[in-house]
Design goal:
This protein is 53% helix and 18% strand. The protein is built from 9 helices and 12 strands. The chain has helices at 13-25, 37-46, 64-74, 88-95, 109-197, 204-235, 248-262, 284-300, 357-367, and strands spanning 5-9, 29-34, 51-55, 79-83, 101-104, 244-247, 268-273, 279-282, 307-315, 318-325, 371-377, 381-389. The chain has a 5-stranded parallel β-sheet, sandwiched between helices. Strands 7-9-10-12-11 form a 5-stranded mixed β-sheet, covered by helices on one side. A two-stranded antiparallel ribbon has the order 6-8. A hairpin with a 3-residue loop joins strand 11 and strand 12. Helix 5 runs antiparallel to helix 6 and helix 7 runs parallel beside helix 8. The longest helix has 89 residues, at 109-197. The two termini are 84 Å apart. 24% of the residues are buried.
Length: 392
């Protein structure tokens, strides 16, 4: 064992000298011998010690336990107690000062050396652990500070993003509304042209043809603007569930008529109504968006001569909707993108579309707290299943 600088605090002069001799035999250096706690503290003021051998019963006002408490506070030096007493009360007082070791008198040299070695080892390990704890606490403090700064930056970024989102929504809504008025005028003019062309006129056929083109284009553009407006509200969190009593048959008929009127394909729509109530309580605007978009897509991606099935029934206060077509279908590897905004399958070819319809359907179904699933196979067709709670 390497040499240590040791302070002996022992009120029995003979015991102190014997202890000094035993320790010096093991090459330890004795920096002083004191018979009181006060003298021990004086020696430590001017001398460095690696360990203190402390008798519990000392001369003077400070006993060994109180002296050890002061040494712990001021010097953080390991202390080994020396005592002839091992009663419970004494041991309880000793434990409270967190001693490095406790030796009962009389002791032998071998035992004493072992206790000193263990005391030094314990002290070093505790200091290493304390150092690691301090380093860890510092790292935690620094990490907490870094996280706080990052959180501030994130909060600022989110606030900026929110402001940009609100600005974008306002621009989309304002611009879209701005388009609505001239589009309405153009549509009215196209319809007037068709009315005038019904009379005998040398260019009757051409007028009818171009008027129909204008009307179809305006309807398509109006539909796109409606979709953009919808997502402008969605991004601004302004889509609310507004339930009211409505006639279900009337809503279905309106949707089917609108889809037929806007279709450029010769596709038959087969409507199959199961047991459905005459009236329901739900949001008519959201239901219209779901029915119209699913049905329009089914018709648009079907070929001339094909048919689309539109089935609705009611079960356990849920509206069950099924829309099936035998059209181009969606490639399996693209199924997970079906409801993404602006997504269009690679096999749509020259068929026009914005890629917003199904994302609108999904958003409406979510607002209604419903469910939507689908089955689709390329060149076979697609079927959508929608479950919507009603009468809530």
């Amino acid at each position: 064992m390497f040499p240590l600088r040791i302070l002996i605090t022992e009120d029995d002069h003979v015991s102190a000298l014997l202890l000094k001799k035993a320790l010096e035999k093991n090459n330890h250096r004795i920096i002083g011998i004191s018979d009181s706690g006060e003298r021990a503290l004086e020696i430590l003021e001017t001398n460095h010690a690696d360990i203190v051998m402390m008798d519990i019963n000392l001369a003077g006002e400070l006993d060994g336990i109180r002296t050890t408490e002061i040494i712990n506070e001021k010097y953080d030096i390991p202390v080994v107690y020396l005592s002839a007493s091992s009663d419970a009360e004494t041991l309880t007082k000793v434990v409270g000062t967190n001693p490095s070791a406790y030796v009962i008198k009389p002791f032998n040299i071998r035992e004493l050396n072992m206790v000193i070695e263990l005391a030094i080892f314990k002290d070093r390990k505790e200091k290493e652990l304390q150092k690691l704890n301090n380093e860890l606490e510092e790292k935690v403090r620094q990490r907490t500070k870094d996280l706080a700064e990052a959180n501030k930056e994130l909060t600022r970024a989110l606030e900026k993003e929110r402001e940009i989102g609100e600005l974008k929504s306002r621009i989309v809504l304002n611009v879209s509304h701005g388009f609505k008025t001239p589009l309405t005028s153009i549509l009215s003019s196209a319809q007037l042209l068709q009315k005038y062309a019904e009379k005998e006129h040398p260019f009757k056929a051409k007028i009818m043809k171009h008027a129909e083109k204008i009307e179809n284009s305006v309807r398509n553009l109006n539909s796109l603007l409606t979709s953009v407006l919808f997502f402008g509200k969605a991004d601004a969190n302004k889509i609310d569930y507004k339930p009211k009593k409505l006639f279900l048959n009337a809503l279905i008929t309106e949707v089917v008529d609108v889809v037929k009127a806007g279709s450029e394909n010769d596709v038959k729509i087969n409507v199959k109504l199961g047991k459905i109530p005459k009236t329901i309580t739900s949001d008519s605007d959201l239901l219209y968006q779901i029915f119209e978009n699913l049905l329009s897509n089914a018709v648009k991606y079907s070929k001339d001569g094909q048919s689309v099935e539109f089935e609705i029934t009611e079960e356990d206060d849920n509206l069950l909707v099924k829309v099936s077509d035998h059209g181009i279908g969606i490639p399996k590897k693209e199924h997970d993108q079906m409801f993404d905004r602006f997504f269009r399958a690679k096999n749509v070819g020259i068929i026009e579309g914005s890629g917003l319809g199904l994302s609108i359907v999904k958003k409406c179904v979510d607002v209604l707290e419903g469910e939507i699933t689908f089955e689709s196979e390329q060149n076979v067709g697609t079927t959508f299943f929608v479950k919507i709670p009603i009468n809530k």
